[in-house]
């Protein structure tokens, strides 16, 4: 049913077939061994003194969060829901970093009551809103800077151009009050995240070196001593297609040298240096299984209508926040029965396209396709409410054992009126 490929062999093709029989499709399968391998791999690529945070937005499934934290990563969260997911698996609220450009007083107050004590702020308004939310609680914050950044090798550019993220470098100098305590809220450092999904080691190191340089420049210009510097991430991974996450064998030495030059006290925690990663840690863990409901020919094209569409995978790519969706199922090597097809979902919209050029061997109704590398920005980055279809089951494997199986659902509840 599922092709005899490296991924299928690694997850055991027969076990996936059993899961399809037990749970049906669409079906996400996450492998905790792949998560642990990725966390261990990135730790080997980083200096021991650098703190690693997992960006929960990549996949907030509780089993994923448990796996990354059990192997030494902290958590970066961006919503009250992610705070609940993190604390729900036993993460210490005071060790979380809360980020995002549009935090409300209600959200920040809720997070602070939960025990969050470190935020990234992105403007004077954001900082003042945090101060108002903190009340009598002592809260630290990083100032996020829209750094110059590099122009090559990144899947998504986060800085170096006009952006909703962070404070432009020039404005940081013009607004020294951003680096002054307000009430019990105090600045402790800088946060720079310039790019995501950088597969090339040299390009990634250049990004991180630029971010380090921006933090040093900001400290020199402002006269502020940072005790924490978050230099972002950018660690790459394939998306919805075969492949392996990139290795960065020279990054440990290169980053150590860059930090030694720019921040001589970093090895003793003066300042503490932090990096973030989402997709690199969890992308390989996920496979989406989807059944072909129909095989149709229209003009020169063959369409495979699947039971998973953009409500289950990649809906956010149309917003420019993910790689262009070009899902490629894993399967046997090409032979005379391999066809180039257009993969579409079941939704009543022409937007519901998973791939315009997928190669599929012996396409047939009832065939189950396995789309790899969807452990990051899979289900929760999709249009889950669009057309109201039932969502895929998510199954978590530890080895061959099912340790969790659940289906997300949307519910409606009465909305309380906000105080005037």
TrEMBL record:
Matches recorded under Pfam families: Orn_Arg_deC_N
Keywords: Pyridoxal phosphate
Domain named Orn/DAP/Arg decarboxylase 2 N-terminal: residues: 34-283
Cofactor: pyridoxal 5'-phosphate
Identification of the protein by name: Type III PLP-dependent enzyme
Organism: Plantactinospora alkalitolerans
């Amino acid at each position: 049913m599922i092709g005899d490929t490296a991924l299928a062999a690694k997850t055991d093709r027969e076990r996936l077939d059993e899961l399809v029989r037990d749970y049906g499709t669409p079906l996400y399968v996450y492998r905790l061994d792949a998560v642990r391998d990725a966390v261990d791999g990135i730790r080997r690529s980083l200096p021991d003194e650098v703190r690693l945070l997992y960006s929960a937005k990549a996949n907030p499934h509780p089993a994923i969060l448990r796996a990354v934290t059990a192997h030494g990563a902290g958590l970066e969260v961006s919503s009250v829901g992610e705070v609940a997911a993190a604390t729900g698996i036993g993460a210490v609220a005071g060790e979380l970093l809360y980020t995002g450009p549009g935090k409300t007083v209600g959200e920040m107050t809720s997070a602070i009551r939960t025990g969050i004590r470190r935020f990234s702020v992105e403007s004077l308004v954001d900082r003042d809103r945090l101060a108002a939310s903190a009340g009598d609680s002592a809260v630290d914050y990083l100032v996020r800077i829209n750094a110059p950044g590099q122009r090559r090798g990144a899947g998504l550019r986060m800085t170096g151009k006009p952006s909703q993220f962070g404070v432009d470098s020039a404005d940081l100098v013009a607004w020294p009050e951003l680096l002054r305590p307000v009430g019990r809220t105090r600045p402790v450092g800088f946060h720079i995240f310039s790019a995501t999904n950088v597969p090339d080691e040299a390009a990634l190191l250049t990004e991180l070196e630029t971010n380090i340089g921006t933090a040093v420049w900001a400290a020199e210009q402002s006269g502020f001593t940072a005790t924490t510097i978050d230099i972002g991430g950018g660690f790459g991974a394939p998306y919805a297609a075969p492949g392996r996450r990139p290795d960065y064998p020279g990054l440990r030495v290169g980053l150590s040298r860059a930090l030694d030059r720019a921040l001589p006290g970093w090895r003793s925690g003066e300042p503490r240096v932090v990096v973030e990663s989402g997709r690199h840690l969890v992308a390989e863990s996920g496979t989406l299984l989807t059944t072909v409901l129909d095989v149709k020919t229209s003009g020169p094209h063959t369409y495979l209508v699947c039971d998973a569409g953009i409500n289950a995978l990649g809906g956010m790519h149309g917003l420019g926040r993910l790689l262009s969706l070009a899902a490629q199922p894993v399967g046997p090597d090409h032979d005379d029965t391999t066809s180039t097809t257009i993969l579409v979902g079941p939704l009543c919209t022409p937007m519901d396209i998973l791939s315009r050029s997928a190669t599929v061997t012996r396409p047939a109704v009832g065939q189950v396709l396995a789309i790899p590398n969807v452990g990051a920005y899979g289900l929760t980055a999709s249009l889950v409410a669009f057309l109201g279809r039932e969502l895929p089951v998510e199954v978590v494997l530890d080895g061959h054992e099912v340790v969790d199986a659940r289906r997300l659902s949307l519910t409606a509840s009465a909305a309380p009126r906000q105080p005037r």
